Amino acid sequence: MKGGSGSMEKLKPILAIISLQFGYAGMYIITMVSFKHGMDHWVLATYRHIVATLVMAPFALVFERKIRPKMTLPIFYRLLALGILEPLMDQNFYYIGLKSTSASYTSAFTNALPAVTFILALIFRLETVNFKKIHSIAKVVGTVITLGGAMVMTLYKGPAIEIVKAAHSSFHGGSTTATGQHWVTGTLAIMGSISTWAAFFILQSFTLKLYPAELSLVTLICGIGSILNFAVSMIFVRDLSAWKIGMDSGTLAAVYSGVVCSGIAYYIQSIVIKQRGPVFTTSFSPMCMVITSFLGALVLAEKIHLGSIIGAIFIVIGLYSVVWGKSKDVVNPLDEKIVVAQELPITNVVKQYGHDFSGAPPNGPDVSRAPTNGGSANT
């Protein structure tokens, strides 16, 4: 009975992340449909985060009223930075890339996220590399392979491959194939999206140490993102009719992405980061790419180009090389005296009996005896 409940606990984060991949795949398709019907990406980003804020706020007020930390200026600055990185920059870069390329291409390219996150973690000394260890070499090689795959997708388009012959074109607001110039612009925008998303991911792990109320954190990030997107939209969107709300694909995209991909996704990712670490949350992203590619072919009659397939294969191989290397960091913590420094900070913080125990004690790497009141540190 105890073993069964333990197995179920291990399955929960896996099922949660798999569910998110289906949610993200649906967002790619619904958002692309709304763009083909004339939805403005600045307006969509604004409405998306307004919806997410309204949905998550009641849960934060009810369930975290006793544990919500006091707001301080340093925490507010971090929240503002998070609002700029993800709701403002990442979302709009992503939407520009999606409009300029295709849903399947954008989904495939975002598999480079773990490699970019790893590079940023190295820069900020959240990751270390020991070339005497096979798993450390795997992380570096995997990162290089992933970036190589991204370069293939950028520089080589290749012939188009139509997975499903479209019998109709009801969703086609125009050509489904972007021009060469738009393809380059879209690729650069996707690169910007991945970079700001990775930076958000790292800053979020730091912020959760100071503000460990996940629902409140999500609500505040989405609220700040709503304000920032609205302010920028006032500059770039001159046509007031773009803000019109109706029973159309634009409203569906705003509600769906706001509830599923901003509100619920931010919250689930925060929980899974604490339980299994940050790299785990990205290890299932190729599943999203496969789902999106087939949905894109069925719903939008998108053609996948040979360069995208070759690049995606490289990206997936590199991704799992990085994931394998990171898993060895966790499995063999005693083999590395500095293993705690190799994980993003939030993965080594355990809330126990109302106290936070850091996985990096000042007197050495042995954290197994950290709790002295009968508790045991989780892994």
In short:
This protein is mainly alpha-helical and 379 residues long. It is 66% helix and 3% strand.
Which SSEs are present, and which pair or pack?
Layout (H helix, E strand, L loop, with lengths): L1 H35 L4 H23 L9 H28 L2 H7 L3 H11 L10 H22 L4 E2 L18 H31 L3 H23 L12 H28 L8 H15 L4 E2 H26 L17 E4 L2 E4 L21
Antiparallel strand pairs: 1-2, 3-4
Search tags:
mainly alpha; about 375 residues; two-stranded antiparallel ribbon
Give me the count of strands.
4
Radius of gyration: 21 Å
Largest sheet: 2 strands, antiparallel
The SSE string, one letter per element, is HHHHHHEHHHHEHEE
- Which strand-content bin applies to the residues? under 5%
Helix/strand-derived category reads mainly alpha
Helical stretch tally:
11
Helix-residue proportion = 55-70%
The residue ranges in which pLDDT falls below 50 over 5 or more consecutive positions are 166-176, 331-379
Query: What average pLDDT do the residues reach?
Result: 77
Strand order of the largest sheet: 1-2
The rough form would be described as globular
Could you tell me how far the N terminus lies from the C terminus, measured between alpha carbons in angstroms?
21 Å
Q: How would you describe this structure to a colleague?
A:
- The chain is mainly alpha-helical and 379 residues long.
- Helices cover 66% and strands 3% of the residues.
- It is built from eleven helices and four strands; from the N terminus they run ααααααβααααβαββ.
- It has helices spanning 2-36, 41-63, 73-100, 103-109, 113-123, 134-155, 180-210, 214-236, 249-276, 285-299, 306-331, and strands at residues 160-161, 304-305, 349-352, 355-358.
- A hairpin with a 2-residue loop joins β3 and β4.
- The longest helix has 35 residues, at 2-36.
- It is globular.
- The relative contact order is 0.20.
